[in-house]
Amino acid sequence: MNRSVFLSLLLGCVCFVAQAQNNSLGKSDPDAKKVLDGLSAKLKSYTAVQASFTLKVMDAKGALQGSKSGTIQLKGNRYHISIPSGQDIYCDGKDVWTYDKGSNETTITKNDPSTQTLSPDKLLSSTPFYVKDFLYKLNGDSKIGTRTVKEVELTPVDKTKSFFKALLEIDKVTHSLVSVRWFDKSGNRYSLDITKLNGNAPISDEQLAYNKAKHPGAEEVDLRN
What we know:
outer membrane lipoprotein receptor (LolB), chain A, single chain, mainly beta, 43% strand, 12% helix, twelve-stranded mixed beta sheet
């Protein structure tokens, strides 16, 4: 799973909320909007985020194709994603450093939020979260473990998108995001579970910065030009 695909999936999952129209009536779904409004308010209350996650990839039959677990730290437009089995990804809002542990190589690229479902800094943006790119509806309540969640189904208005549906599971009591499932046109399915989240974590700028001293001997490949 390459970096751009992984970020698009992961960071889109963490804060994937949308404002659009009802599928059949062309009007907003008031029940779904209430749930999304609660999630949006929750996300906007965060000052700095530290979360643990598990991202799984399944084929069309539901067979597991791969799984990644890790943590993300996010503050403003800066973030650090750590995947113990493979990568460390740092972003200062302008550039992205992707360190591959297997090859001991760091790739530097420009941060391009347009290539992602939602850019990382949108999580704590002071501007409204809602975009007019999705149709949404409320599917009702279900259980994930001991938690009661509300499921919101999103479909993209732009039919050229690689996925045709996403399901958000939002905690009925805390209004926090519990999990997301993506359904890709290729037949693959993606699921992300947020196992632990602190919305007011004590994160310093140094924790989010790429430090060459912590990656001795790493070859750097600069693709920004």
